[in-house]
Amino acid sequence: MTLTHPERSTTASAPTTTDGPGTERLTTLGAQLRTALDGDFAEDRARMRATFPAEDLLRDPELDVEASREWTLNRLLSLNGQGFGSAGVPTTANAGSDPRGAVLTFEMLSHGDLSVTIKSGVQFGLFGGAVTNLGTEWHHETFLPDITSMKLLGGFAMTELGHGSDVASLETTITYLPDSEEFEVHSPTPGATKAYIGNAAKDGTMAAVFGQLVVGGRSHGVHVVLVPLRDDDGNDLPGINTGDHGHKGGLLGVDNGTIRFDHVRVPRRMLLNRYGGVDESGTYVSPIDNQNRRFFTMLGTLVRGRVCVGGGGGIAARRGLSIATRHALRRRQFPAAGRPDGVLLLDYLVHQKRLLPRIARSYALGFAQNLLIEALVHVQGGDESTEEDQRSLETHAAGLKAVQTWFANESIQEAREACGGAGYMSENQLVEMRRDVDIFATFEGDNTVLMQLVTKSLLTDYRKEWGELDRTGVVQATARVAGESVLEATSAGIMLGRLADAVRRRPEETTLVDRRWHALMFEQRTRHSLESLAMRMRAAAKSKGDEFESFNALGDHVQFVARAYMEEWILSAFVDALETVEPGESRDVLERVCSLYALQSIHDTRAWFMEHNRISSGRSKAIGAQINELCRELRPHALPLVEGMGIPEGWLGAALLDD
Amino acid sequence: MTLTHPERSTTASAPTTTDGPGTERLTTLGAQLRTALDGDFAEDRARMRATFPAEDLLRDPELDVEASREWTLNRLLSLNGQGFGSAGVPTTANAGSDPRGAVLTFEMLSHGDLSVTIKSGVQFGLFGGAVTNLGTEWHHETFLPDITSMKLLGGFAMTELGHGSDVASLETTITYLPDSEEFEVHSPTPGATKAYIGNAAKDGTMAAVFGQLVVGGRSHGVHVVLVPLRDDDGNDLPGINTGDHGHKGGLLGVDNGTIRFDHVRVPRRMLLNRYGGVDESGTYVSPIDNQNRRFFTMLGTLVRGRVCVGGGGGIAARRGLSIATRHALRRRQFPAAGRPDGVLLLDYLVHQKRLLPRIARSYALGFAQNLLIEALVHVQGGDESTEEDQRSLETHAAGLKAVQTWFANESIQEAREACGGAGYMSENQLVEMRRDVDIFATFEGDNTVLMQLVTKSLLTDYRKEWGELDRTGVVQATARVAGESVLEATSAGIMLGRLADAVRRRPEETTLVDRRWHALMFEQRTRHSLESLAMRMRAAAKSKGDEFESFNALGDHVQFVARAYMEEWILSAFVDALETVEPGESRDVLERVCSLYALQSIHDTRAWFMEHNRISSGRSKAIGAQINELCRELRPHALPLVEGMGIPEGWLGAALLDD
Question: Taking every annotated instance into account, which residue ranges of this chain make up the domain Acyl-CoA oxidase C-alpha1 (chains A, B) (predicted)?
Answer without folding.
Answer: 300-459
